[in-house]
Design a protein that fits this description.
Strand order of the largest sheet of chain A: 2-1-3-11-4-8-6-7
Largest interface: A-B, 35 and 33 residues
Strand content of chain A: 15-25%
Shape of chain B: globular
CATH class of the largest domain in chain B: Mainly Alpha
Structural class of chain A: alpha/beta
Oligomer: heterodimer
CATH superfamily of the largest domain in chain B: MetI-like
Shape of chain A: elongated
Distance between the termini of chain B: 29 Å
Order of helices and strands of chain A: HEHEHEHEEHHEHHEHEHEEHEEHHEE
Largest sheet of chain A: 8 strands, mixed
Largest sheet of chain B: 2 strands, antiparallel
Helix content of chain A: 25-40%
CATH topology of the largest domain in chain B: MetI-like fold
CATH architecture of the largest domain in chain B: Orthogonal Bundle
Chain lengths: ~350, ~325
């Protein structure tokens, strides 16, 4: 009995030792946004098959936490749904790069008898969220929804109560299309809502909308699709009503590719393209341009390259919109700018 | 009783006395260890307060007293006032206690005094099970089951019958202060009942026998001999429940509506201190914003301490007058 116990102890010790040795290869720590967490964990899984030497550890603690941790250099990479402000970038000990990974969209969902297909113009959407349009049978809603039967019922606005990238994208859009919203409320991951109730998370908003006739809220496209929620078409900058889909989200990114700023800190809301859905956004990984460790830095750069190429194949299955080809080209150049002590890390890996 | 150990020692031989001395030094070690344990709690609370105060300094400096009396919460403009959250925490816990105390104590009395013996273990088990359900489950049940029930049945009925009171006015959203209070009541009842039952069972039987022998009815026995005797223990049970209600986060966040406004109506959406922490802490990036949230955490700690102290004072003063009247 005792001999067997000793054998087990030695075995476990050996296993632990072996595992520690494997760990010593390379562990990349990351933290940040919750929205892209499903695709990131899929990538880390798949990438382990390509590069077995690297393990990723990602904590989805929210964009704010991701920005704080990468600024303090407690992680190797951060992740955020909203670009860092100039002020935040200044606080970082080195130059931080924003690398777009995938795209997401935010959709308007509602609860009306029979759930007719609805269309919204930007001004109507803004005035509903400002509390100026309060009834579903308002003339301005009816004007663009000729076929739909709209009840004489109050509109109950439902928004996210938790700070989130989803909220940022939604109010960023409202800021762009409504000067009044911009002045009165502004943009942020949490704002002071003029009207409505707050639900926690996508499920909180969707639950409240589903349970309340006359409710109107916003959720992520992926959440609306998996739960088969009714979603509204929104009129984009080009004057076309566009249904939120993966394709129309990618189209939004494609339409700003020509005017893309060098640091990728761009808002995709109210994008100009004909087919562009207007409430879309990149989500970014945050990495230092000059890496502190040559081995880790090279591994990170190679992963970013893989994610923006092979990795994009996994996006649509998980209901994220893949990056358009034009943007991938721009990312290639950016990833090659990653250095260790001034020397580029990817130059030798040209593919 | 107390004289007995001394008497024993007098009778004992030298061997026993030596063992007693060893026991005394063992007692000292034991007491020392316990003192360290107790002191560590004091240290922990102090460390908590110090950490919170230090992290809240930017907000305390920027807003001062306006933070506590202000009603505007605007993260974009970085203007923060916590009054709606304080109000929401206090009101939702008050609603919860109004519902939970009679229910919880009533169930405890039933289980300890009246219920047939064979039924006590299964009911006790079920109530303890309720205490073990994670709060997020209560929260999801709240939005998908309780809130629709409230919107379709309870709130219209209350509005029609008691709508003349400002408490029951306004549009029925399903979620809001009342729904949050009900969820909290459901969550605190098991605590009050479980602890309350143990307290009542600890009441010595001669108390009951004496009352019954004097010709008291069942109710009189329970009221005078049992409840009176167990009073401080029952207060402990209620305070335990109150503590849970004040600090509860997930379940409340799901059903309170998360709107930082002060309204007299229980139908209106509200917000609590714990909820705003859970909602906004992860995404707060600016220093003042973060400090404001930490200051809310500090206020929550202070409110909890103050409410507990007030509850004890209230009960002591009431208990004191009752005792005096009896004299």
């Amino acid at each position: 009995m005792r001999v067997r116990l000793a054998a087990i102890v030695v075995g476990v010790a050996l296993l632990t030792f072996g595992a520690t040795a494997a760990l010593a290869q390379s562990l990349m720590n990351g933290a940040g946004a919750t929205f892209p967490y499903p695709i990131y964990s899929k990538w880390f899984d798949e990438y382990a098959k390509v590069e077995p030497g690297i393990r990723f550890n990602y904590q989805s603690i929210g964009s704010g936490g991701g920005i704080r941790q990468i600024t303090e250099r407690t992680v190797d990479f951060g992740a955020t749904d909203g670009p860092m402000t100039d002020e935040q970038l200044k606080k970082a000990p080195g130059e931080l790069l924003h690398i777009p990974t995938v795209l997401g969209a935010v959709v308007a969902t509602y609860n009306l008898p029979g759930n007719p297909k609805l269309k919204f113009t930007p001004d109507v959407l803004a005035d509903i969220f400002l509390g100026k349009i309060t009834k579903w049978n308002d003339d301005r809603i009816r004007a663009v929804n000729a076929g739909a039967s709209l009840p004489n019922q109050p509109i109950l606005v439902v928004h996210r109560s938790d700070g989130s990238g989803t909220t940022y994208i939604w109010v960023d859009y409202l800021c762009k299309i409504s000067p009044e919203w911009d002045k009165l409320v502004g943009r942020g991951t949490s704002v002071k809502w003029p009207v409505g109730l707050g639900g926690k998370g996508n499920e909180g908003v969707a639950g409240q909308v589903k349970n309340t006739p006359g409710a109107l809220g916003y959720v992520e496209l992926a959440y609306a699709t998996t739960n088969k929620l009714p979603v509204a078409e929104i009129r984009n900058q080009a004057g076309k009503f566009v249904e939120p889909t993966i394709d129309s989200t990618t189209a939004a990114a494609a339409s700003v590719a020509k005017t893309m700023p060098a640091d990728f800190r761009v808002s995709l809301t109210n994008a100009p393209g004909d087919k562009a859905y207007p409430i879309a956004s990149f989500t970014w990984l945050l990495v230092y341009r000059d890496q502190a460790d040559a081995g880790k830095g090279r591994a990170l750069a190679k992963f970013l390259w893989w994610a923006s190429h092979e990795g994009q194949r996994y996006a649509a299955d998980l209901l994220y919109a893949p990056l358009p080809a034009e943007v991938v080209k721009q990312i290639e150049r950016k990833v090659k700018e990653i250095t260790f002590q001034g020397k580029p890390l990817l130059a030798s890996v040209d593919r | 009783m107390r004289a007995l150990p001394g008497g024993l020692e007098a009778m004992a031989g030298p061997g026993l006395r030596r063992r007693a001395r060893i026991r005394v030094s063992g007692d000292r070690v034991f007491a020392g260890v316990l003192r360290v344990v107790a002191a560590s709690f004091v240290g922990l609370v102090l460390a908590l307060v110090v950490t919170l105060v230090v992290a809240a300094v930017p907000a305390i400096r920027t807003f001062g007293w306006r933070f506590i009396v202000g009603t505007n919460w605007d993260p974009v403009a970085e203007s923060f006032g916590a009054l709606p959250f304080i109000y929401g925490t206090l009101l939702s816990s008050l609603v919860a206690m109004v519902l939970a105390v009679p229910l919880g104590i009533g169930a405890a009395i039933f289980l300890a005094e009246l219920a047939p013996f064979w039924i006590r273990p299964p009911i006790g088990f079920l109530i303890e099970l309720l205490a073990a359900v994670p709060s997020v489950v209560y929260g999801l049940w709240g939005i998908f089951v309780l809130a629709p029930l409230m919107r379709v049945w309870v709130q219209p009925a209350l509005g029609a019958s008691l709508g003349f009171l400002p408490l029951f006015q306004g549009a029925p959203y399903g979620v809001g202060m009342l729904t949050a209070g009900i969820i909290l009541a459901i969550m605190t009842v098991p605590f009050i009942t479980t602890v309350g039952r143990e307290v009542l069972l600890a009441v010595p039987n001669h108390q009951r026998e004496a009352a019954l022998a004097l010709g008291a009815t069942r109710w009189e026995t329970t009221r005078m001999a049992v409840l009176n005797y167990a009073r401080s223990g029952l207060i402990g049970a209620v305070l335990l429940g109150l503590g849970r209600a004040l600090g509860e986060t997930m379940a409340v966040t799901m059903v309170i509506g998360n709107r930082p406004e002060i309204s007299a109506s229980l139908f209106a959406p509200g917000y609590t201190m714990a909820s705003v922490l859970a909602n906004e802490f992860t995404e707060a990036t600016s220093d003042v914003y973060l400090a404001a949230l930490v200051e809310i955490g500090l206020l929550l700690l202070i409110v909890t301490v103050v409410v507990n102290a007030l509850a004890r004072l209230l009960v002591w003063s009431v208990g004191g007058t009752v005792a005096k009247v009896r004299e």
